[in-house]
Write a sequence for this structure.
């Protein structure tokens, strides 16, 4: 289980930047989503994980987290929440992942870590790659009202977000 290192404490109350990034559904503005979940990277069938991946607390679980948000898409929509996922992976990887897993919402490519720079999002380094630490942001009118960090287990994150939104409604 990952530890809460305080790296996301500053996010509640912050306004999401008007930042347009490429996604599996074309260019999107991250400020237009009520739920934005951020994850390190998804795997690809037949390709090995990065060296030491399994030893990093909270690194595994990107596909289960994304698929859980996929499975809760209608509930999130009923609660007025548009969802998108973000990682540092290239658009080509995001397109492949979204197609393979039938992801109905945008999966955003941020290989230049522009969202990190705008929001000071937490990252970690592994095998020469800088990746996002897993978290989920809930916004209201573009302002972050809830931060889920650290996220563990990843496959429960979507249900936790839905429960929080329902309690708030």
């Amino acid at each position: 289980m990952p530890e809460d290192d305080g790296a996301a404490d500053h996010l509640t109350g912050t306004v999401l930047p008007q930042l347009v990034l490429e996604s599996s559904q074309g260019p999107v503005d991250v400020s237009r989503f009520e739920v934005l979940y951020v994850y390190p990277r998804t795997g690809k069938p037949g390709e090995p994980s990065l060296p030491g991946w399994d030893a990093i607390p909270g690194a595994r679980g990107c596909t289960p987290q994304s698929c859980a948000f996929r499975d809760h898409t209608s509930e999130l929509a009923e609660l007025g929440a548009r969802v998108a996922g973000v990682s540092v992976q290239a658009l080509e990887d995001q397109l492949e992942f979204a197609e393979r897993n039938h992801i109905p919402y945008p999966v955003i490519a941020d290989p230049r870590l522009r969202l990190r720079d705008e929001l000071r999002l937490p990252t970690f380094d592994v095998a020469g790659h800088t990746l996002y630490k897993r978290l989920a942001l809930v916004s209201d009118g573009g302002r972050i009202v809830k931060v889920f960090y650290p996220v563990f287990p990843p496959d429960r994150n979507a249900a936790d977000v839905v429960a929080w939104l329902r309690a708030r409604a």
Summary: Residues 20-168 form a domain with the Glutaredoxin fold (CATH 3.40.30.10). The chain has one domain: 20-168.
